[in-house]
């Protein structure tokens, strides 16, 4: 009885295999076409995803470089204003020394020079764009010269003119 069941199972499997092969031999072009369509769809999805990531990265680069440009313009404006005020302070020191050496009597215009004597200016750079670039990777910037100049400005030049404790208390 067991042998008969085994023979029937093998016979049944044989019939199923013959049926599958028969269907495949008749419909193989349809199945090949379906496999090709699915493959093209998957490859298209990967290409679309890659294009979208590239577009997002390019937009991010543009936004970050725009922010860096704005930060640099603000920093330049701040440093220029500080420089003008420090020049006024320098001139005030010269004027007060001249007042002292010439033993001048007090005039109302001298109050400005005395006020400018204690003027203190320092720069705190806007770094938002640079910090975003550092966080997202410097490889966002393809131009090596631009990348080097940005890093040099923010890592070397700006720290030298920012207030950094007792040694750099005044510009």
Q: How would you summarize this macromolecular structure in one to three sentences?
A:
80% of the residues lie in helices and 0% in strands.
The helix/strand series, from N terminus to C terminus, equals: HHHH
C-alpha end-to-end distance:
104 Å
Rg of Cα set: 38 Å
Structural class: mainly alpha
Uncertain runs are 165-171
What does this structure look like?
- This protein is mostly helical and 171 residues long.
- It is 80% helix and 0% strand.
- The protein has helices spanning 2-102, 110-117, 128-136, 144-161.
- Helix 1 (2-102) packs antiparallel against helix 2 (110-117) and helix 1 (2-102) runs antiparallel to helix 3 (128-136).
- The chain is rod-shaped.
- Residues 165-171 have low confidence and may be disordered.
Present the secondary structure layout.
Layout (H helix, E strand, L loop, with lengths): L1 H101 L7 H8 L10 H9 L7 H18 L10
Helix pairs in contact: 1-2, 1-3
Label this structure with key terms:
171 residues; rod-shaped; mainly alpha; disordered C terminus; 4 helices
């Amino acid at each position: 009885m067991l042998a008969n069941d085994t023979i029937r199972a093998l016979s049944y499997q044989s019939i199923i295999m013959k049926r599958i092969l028969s269907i495949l031999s008749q419909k193989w072009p349809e199945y090949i076409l379906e496999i090709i369509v699915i493959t093209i769809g998957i490859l298209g999805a990967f290409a679309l995803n890659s294009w979208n990531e590239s577009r997002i990265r390019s937009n991010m680069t543009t936004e970050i470089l725009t922010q860096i440009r704005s930060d640099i313009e603000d920093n330049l404006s701040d440093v220029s204003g500080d420089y003008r005020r420090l020049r006024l302070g320098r001139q005030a020191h010269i004027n007060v020394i001249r007042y002292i050496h010439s033993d001048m009597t007090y005039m109302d215009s001298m109050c400005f020079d005395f006020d400018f004597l204690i003027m203190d200016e320092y720069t705190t750079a806007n770094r938002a764009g640079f910090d975003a670039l550092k966080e997202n990777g410097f490889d966002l910037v393809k131009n090596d010269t631009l990348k080097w100049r940005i890093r040099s400005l923010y890592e070397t030049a700006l720290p030298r003119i920012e207030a950094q404790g007792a040694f750099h208390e005044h510009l």
